[in-house]
Amino acid sequence: MSVTLQTSPSRRPLLYLSLAACVLLSVANAIGWVFDIPLLLSLFESLPKMVPATTVLVLASAVSLWLQARHPAQSGVAGGLGMLVCACGLLMLACNIFGMAPRPFLLSQVGMQSALSLSAPLTAGIFGMLGAALGLLARDREVELAQIGAVAVLLLALLNFAGYFFQETRLYEILPGKGSALPTTGAALLLACATLMLRPDQGIMMVIGGSSPSARIARRLLYLALAVPVVLAGAAVAVLHAGLYDAATLLPLLSWGTIVLLGLLIWRFASRLYQIDVARTRAEQDLQGALQQLREERDRKDVFLATLAHELRNPLAPIQSAAEVLHHMREPDKARIDKVASMILRQVDNMVHLVDDLMDVSRIGRGQLTLDR
């Protein structure tokens, strides 16, 4: 099925930049495994590494998005590739749940078994949802469902990213601690954002993807709503590691700061929306006034045309009667002919004045004649 709606041109560079970053990250990870460069596998040796299986899923997802953005006619192929990513992710998730793992004999003999490890459970689940979203995105009727899936991937990736800031908590143990690498989290974030940017004028993205003032304000509010908790959480972690406050004190302060900042942001943008609403109300009132004026002018024009038609018809009756008299006249009668001719000239002159008045009205309407009252 061909895609009829395209990505907004103003957002295409950001979409392609996200895909390029994913490809570069995947290539770097592959080079890291081939040449045993730990820095390319993870930012720190103590953190989980991005495995090649995840690299393949990232590349396949990026290709699917690129095909849908650049070649809408190939949306079927792109959707099929997305569903393949979904199947691989769900298969690896099942293997993780039931404790199964691939053991290729030849590769295990040369010490590459670790390179063929399965993706972490969270990573497998994320790419299972992301692949399903890419497959649904290729179908016009399922765009909203695909975007909901992309939002779920985005939120899970953000939660996993937050887990890296709290390495001594249960959150780290159940998310990053299970093997979901930091580069993988970054790639999932980029792919989820690219999925949402692909169709900004459809589905749930219509609210923030349009060019209307309310959509622009909604975008800014969303960015700030995402940034405020991250910044405050980062500050809280820094303060906690510095030993300035204990966790029991920081938690209520963090909650209070988030409420205050988000409340101020909501109030500010609500005031902008109020100003936009007031301006729109005034514009609607002006429009209604202009429409009423047009209706009155139309009514006056209709009355004028009706009056003009009546006035033009009046001279026609005497002229018609005079023509009949001349037609039925048997013998020339100079006095009678003069009387009839005088009547015809008088009525024709009256019609000429009426036509002149009509032309003057037309010139006034076109601004070619100034009326001195």
Question: How is this structure best described in words?
Answer:
This protein has 373 residues and is mostly helical. The protein is 76% helix and 0% strand. It has helices at residues 12-35, 38-41, 52-70, 75-98, 105-109, 121-137, 143-163, 170-174, 182-198, 206-209, 213-242, 247-328, 334-365. 25% of the residues are buried.
Kindly summarize this structure in a few lines.
By secondary structure, this protein is an all-alpha fold. Helices cover 76% and strands 0% of the residues.
DSSP summary, beta strand count: 0
Supply the number of helical segments.
13
Name the overall outline.
elongated
Radius of gyration using CA atoms only:
39 Å
Low-confidence runs: 1-9, 103-115
Class based on secondary structure composition and strand pairing: mainly alpha
| Residue share in helix | over 70%
Query: Which H/E pattern describes the elements?
Result: HHHHHHHHHHHHH
Q: What does the largest sheet look like?
A: none
Distance between the termini: 68 Å
Mean pLDDT figure: 81
Oligomer: single chain
Beta-strand proportion: under 5%
Keywords:
single chain, 373 residues, mainly alpha, 13 helices, 76% helix, disordered N terminus
